[in-house]
Write a structure and sequence with these properties.
75% helix, globular, single chain, 0% strand, mainly alpha
């Protein structure tokens, strides 16, 4: 059962930190990872060690991505891939592709994310690297999940959870629990979602995974806010998670924490405070060029402004533009949230320019996503 806590997991590890950086903790601060990564990358390049350059470049790419330094992350993963290719090392090539695919998802380029993550999974299998293959399959599952196509990726999340538990991979166990919990939360199964988020937080805590713990605490805060209306507890949980985010310098997680704090305050009718938090999160997401977080913060800001007396026609116009943006990215679940907001605020239904109407079409993956998921074989991880 997904909700059962089994034996104490192994300590969380960070397999994306490799070679000379392999001793770094999953909780190492990202500025530290970046500084070490650049130092070791230069040393590897001077020594002509292309495989080590690929490994160190991967850490640089991931640190930059998580710090919101998008252009630097893009250059770093591509350089890592070139170094790995010149060294003829398929495992290192797969890791670079995984990093590039994860970055593409963060930037809202979902078709590219599917393509790169699918290639990473295939190359990881050819190179015999079970870990990067598992991370790449998880990346495909997460990309489908944020689009809202739970039917396509729900079973894959469950399979990856079972495999992570079998292999004793605490970090992936936490990721899978949180993903499944989020799907339950979004479909209204709040009790189930809360149990899974709490298990994820417990597993992450016992495995000393501060990053996974912070995300799980955000999920718990969301559920106790929407289900129980417990504002004080939700804000307390978010404050604890924020401390962890600041400790490791998790820029994206911190911005999502601030957006969730806005959600909690909005639900409590504290619209002025909610507006401030949404505006703060919007600025943070824009700075790191993260379109999904940007769009969701904009949605919160529009709702708060409407509650504070903004003209209904202006509200409808901005919601219509926001829905178009979400359609372009491919975030169909978030698009539905816009339609629900319009109804809640009394400015719907919104004019539709896509031909399928509000909520008329079920979430659909792009062809490249469907093909990538079709090839998934979790048994190949064994």
């Amino acid at each position: 059962m997904a909700g059962q806590v089994t034996e104490r997991p192994a300590m969380a590890s960070a397999p994306e930190y490799q070679g000379a950086l392999g001793s770094l903790s999953v909780n190492a601060s990202l500025p530290e990872v970046l500084a070490r990564g650049v130092q070791e990358l230069r040393a590897a390049e001077e020594a002509g060690d292309r495989r080590e350059a690929a490994r160190c470049g991967l850490a640089v790419a991931e640190a930059c991505r998580r710090l919101g330094r998008i252009e630097e992350a893009d250059r770093a993963w591509k350089a890592s891939y070139r170094a790995a290719r010149s060294a003829g090392h398929e495992g290192a090539m797969a890791w670079a592709l995984w990093s590039g695919g994860t970055l593409a998802r963060q930037r809202g380029a979902l078709r590219l994310a599917y393509r790169l993550l699918g290639l990473a999974a295939e190359m990881g299998e050819r190179g015999g690297d079970v870990v990067v293959r598992g991370y790449s399959l998880a990346g495909l599952a997460e990309t489908g999940r944020i689009q809202g196509d739970y039917k396509a990726v729900g079973r894959l999340h469950e399979q990856l959870l079972a495999e992570a538990r079998r292999r004793g991979e605490a970090r992936h166990t936490v990721w899978a629990l949180e993903g499944i919990a989020q799907m339950h939360r979004n479909t209204g199964s709040y009790d189930r979602a809360l149990a899974l988020f709490e298990e994820a937080a417990d597993t992450a805590s016992r495995a000393e995974d501060r990053r996974g713990w912070a995300w799980a605490m955000r999920g718990i805060a969301d559920v106790v806010s929407v289900r129980d209306g417990d504002v004080d507890r939700a804000l307390s949980l978010l404050s604890q998670a924020e401390e962890a985010c600041r400790e490791i310098r998790l820029a994206s997680a911190l911005a999502y924490n601030h957006k969730m704090r806005g959600n909690v305050l909005y639900r409590a009718g504290r619209y002025e405070q909610a507006r401030e938090l949404y505006a703060q999160a919007l600025e943070e997401f824009r700075e790191m060029e993260e379109p999904r977080g940007t769009a969701l913060s904009r949605l919160g800001l529009v709702k708060a402004d409407a509650r504070l007396g903004r003209d209904g026609a202006d509200t409808a116009a901005e919601l219509t533009g926001l829905r178009t943006t979400l359609d372009r990215i491919g975030l169909r679940h978030a698009r539905d949230m816009v339609d629900k907001a319009a109804a809640e605020l009394g400015v719907g239904p919104l004019p539709d320019h896509t031909g399928d109407g509000p909520g008329a079409a079920a979430p659909a993956l792009p062809a490249v996503g469907t093909e990538a998921l079709r090839k998934v074989d979790v048994e190949g991880l064994r």
